[in-house]
Structures are given as structure tokens and as C-alpha cells.
Amino acid sequence: MDTQGRRNIDPADQWVLDPATGTYQLRLDPEAAPSAGVPPQGRYGDAESAPAAESAAEPTPDDSPAASTSSPAPGGRRAARTGAAAATAAAGSRNRRRAKPRMSRKKKVLAWTGGTVGFLLVATTVAGYLVYEHFNNNITTVDVGDAGSKDVVSDGPMNILVIGTDSRQGLGGKYGDADNVGHADTTILFHVSADRSNATAMSIPRDIVTSIPDCPTKQKDGSVKTIPGTPARLTTPKFNESLGVAGRDPGCTMRAVSQLTGGLKIDHFMMVNFEAVKTLSTAVGGVDVCLARPLVDPKSHLNLTAGPHKIEGEQALEFVRTRHALKNQSDLDRIKLQQNFLSAMIRQIKSTNTLTNPKKLFTLADAATKALTVDTAIGSVSKLTSLAKDLSKVDSKHISFTTLPVVDNPNEKVHATVVVDQTRAPQLFSLIKNDVSLTQTKKPAAKPDPRLTGPKATPHNTRVNVLNGSGVFGAAQDTVNWLQNTQGVNRSDNGGNAPATIATTTLVYAPNQADQARSLAAMMGLPASALKQGTTNAAPLAYMTLTLGKDFTKPGTPIGPPTAAPKDLQRTQADNTACVK
User: Fold this and answer.
1) CB of 545 closer than 8 Å to CB of 467
2) In 23-91, at which residue ranges do the beta strands (DSSP E only) sit?
3) The model scores a pTM over 0.85
4) Do the beta carbons of residue 86 and residue 79 sit within 8 Å?
5) What DSSP string runs through 440-455?
6) Three-class SS state of 501
7) What is the pLDDT of residues 67-126, one digit of tens each?
8) 3-state SS assignment for residue 140
């Protein structure tokens, strides 16, 4: 009771059950007449049912609240009930619904809190779904068929082609012809090692003269149209024509890169345009670059002084597009500048400020999904997230940027195009194919392969027939001469040309020739993968069969994969913060 004789009313008791609707209603005045259709309510909801229930639980009327003359009534004292009235109420209650026991204040608080948390969880789930759908709707996809992989990630190495197109479509003519469908202006093959300890980002110059293979493309009506390939001539076609020309899609560029690198399988592609550079650089809060000298280019409108700068938006686009501000004003110089910019962006995205700031992260995700065109295998937020988590395992200090080695086109007087350097490029392709890092990474020592461990036969007791599947004229005879004259393998013969050229050198032998195989492998530097053991033993004087593949260079040069990058290979690490010269 308070000083005015009123009861101190628990707010929870003001909510009463309406039996007609099965819902709770708020009654602010306990003494007010109930609304139509709502029976008289008491402290327990139904004024009759609660006391009756109690009297049923306690059969002695004098001990029950219904029989007590001191029990308070709503708005004052509760009217005393006679024993007969109590008995009547108790009898009538047997046919009525038993009232729910009164909820304690603590339980009411928990109930309200639980309801609030439940609401928030539902709201968060709905919001998350809407954001997920929003991001999904941002992404543009292209079905590249068998040019790519159907798996989002794999347990082995991965190769992702990043294409920067010079398309002006949708940009309102701001950067040139608004109807330009775009070509492969900037292309980077991003190779991630199987153990995710390192990655190699190989830029492919757009002006390489190379053949472009036939390309099946998926049309809007679901049909497949094959775009005829273009053979390489003296000065045409250029690599950038693998996209956009004659309806070629990114799958055509993937096929062109696979052919250019000697069969390297490309898993996925990601394509961005001019606008992506602006939006992504802004979304990460700007990209830090350092210049050793001023960069001024009237054509791209770039004007930066020497020293550190944080660039974003239009200025970032000017930075990656400039050529005339560079010493040689060439596309190869611009590639190095773009690698510097991408390295800085990788460091920024992996920084704490970006990844732990919800607003920045949302802005980045929104900008990235709007900017991206990807193959259908990774064409959703969940798939891109899985791929991003997998790729993020690579430390930035072990991400190496390099450029496909090229030389000036010898068929031109004024050099406007380049051709693949047939000496250095195969070495780089071999590094990528064999998952060799361009940086020094700590890896657990590999266990010796059982095919290469064990006793070895003497050279005199090693018998081998050499076939030439390398495509190099005279390779088999050169190898036989080397084996006999320098290694003492007198029982070696020239078997002539193999039925067809093969990519890698193989040595086929029987189980009882394993010691001879180990001996020959040690002499020639054969990797364990080259050794192919049969299932049945050979005759005592039978010869093994060594077939030289395209990986063969000359006798005495190890045929196994390279273990380190060539010293003269241009490269830079993503953690390199040196100023651009």
C-alpha cells in the first residue's frame, strides 16, 4: 500500500488475458469496468479462477485466499467471502481452465529480454540476408565452360586470371569511346601455391604478338558459338585482342593464357574496368604510394610531386593509366607502376584498419562486388568469400609480382609490339607449373621419395634404350653419347624418335630394374615423377626405356623442375614500400 491507500501495482499485472481472443490486453485501472467481451479480471487474470484453483490445491476453506477476510481486493480491501461462497467458487472452478501460476518479476524480466533478443536475432538474420542478396545482385557472371574449373577452391595450386579491361561502356564517354567493348588491357596471372605459403602474380603485356585459339562462348539464349582463332603473323594479333574482338569473352582470354604458358590450367577469372580502380581505392580509404621523382602526365592528368601520397578515386585511376610520365613511356614501365599500386592496395586491404572496421568492410565489399565480373563457378558472395579466405592465407611478403619475359618484336623497325622471350619465359612457366616460389619461404623438409632411395646399380650394369620425344633434333643420340662417354653407361642404345612428342621425360622400368632406374635418375637429374615402374619383372638383360620430353634441354642438364627463380627475372614483393623511380 502507498500513503494514499492505493496498491503498489506491478506493471506486469496490468496485462490480462482476454479469453475471447486468446491475447493479452493492457488494463491501466484495475477497478475500471472491463471492456465488452472481456470477463472481470483480477490480479491473476480471471478473478474467479485463480482463487478457486488455490482452494482446490488447499481444501481447507479457512486457509485459502478465497476464504481470507484480510486478503486485499482490487482498489481496496477484498470483500470477505463466506464458507458457502468459497465452496461454491471451488466447485465451479473444477469446470474452468486452471490459471497459469503467477510469473515472478525475475522470470518476467527474462521473458521480456528473451523476446527482445529473439527479435534482434530475427532482424539481424533478415538484414544479413538482405545484405547478402544485395551483394549477390552486384556481381556479374560469365559462363566460360571448360576454360575454367568448377571447384571454388582446391587442395592443390590455383591459377586466377585478373583482367583489367579498357571498356568505356557505362562511363558516359568520360574516358573515350562510350561504345568501346574493351580489350584485355591489364592482365595478371595470379598463381597460389598448393600449401598457400606463397603466390606469384605474373603480368602479361598487352602488346605481345601471339596466336589466339578457337573459343567456344555461351550465348544469351544458352547456345554455344565458337569464335574462330587467329594465327600469329609478323605483327598481329596482339594478346589484348583475346577479349572483346569478334565477341570474345573472358573465357577466350583464359584459353589464350593457357596456350601462351604451355598448357597451364586457369581455374577462374576476375575482370574489372576503369571505375573499379576508383571505387576500390576509395573504399579502402586511399592507397599509399611513394615517388622518387615527380610524375606529371598531361594526357592522364596525373600531377604528383616526389614523396609519399595517399591516392584514391580519379587520382588513383590517373596513376595506373599513366605512361607518358614514365621514363620509357612504355606499357612495360606502366606494368611496374601498376604492380606497385596493387602491392600497396593488398597491404591496405590486409591491414587492421580495413578488415576490422565494419563500415570500411561493408563499403569495400559493396564496391568490390559491383566492380567484379567473374566466372559462374565463383559467382556468388558465399563462393567469393570462400575463395577470399583461402587466398588470404598467403602472407603479403610472399606475394611476388613479375612480368612475363618479352623482347622487342624483330619483325618491326619501329618497335610497337613484343614477342615472348623463348629463353627466359619457359623458365618462369616451369616455376609456376612446378609450384616454385619466387620468394624464400620456410617449408618443411620433404620426405625422400622411395623411388629415388635405395641401392643403385653400377653404370656398367645399367641398361637403357633412349627415345626422342622432345622435338629437339638428335637429342636421343646426344644423350647416348653422353651416357657412354662421360657416365660409363655402355649398355645404352638410340631407339630413334618416339611415336609422338611428350611434355615431360619418362623412364619406364620393371620392379627388378629399380636399382638401375635410381642410378640413371641420379646421373640425369630426373625427378621422382619421371620414374614409371611397371608391375611385372623383366628378363635379366632387358633394357629400360627412357623417352626424352619437351623438358629436356641437353645431356647433363637436370631434367627436374627448377628449384629457384632465375637471377635476372624482374620481380618485386607485395610488402615492398620502396619509392617508385
Assistant:
1) yes
2) 23-26, 41-42, 45-46, 72-73, 76-77
3) no
4) no
5) ----PPPPPPTTT-S-
6) coil
7) 444 444 444 444 444 444 444 545 455 555 555 566 555 555 444 455 555 554 555 455
8) strand
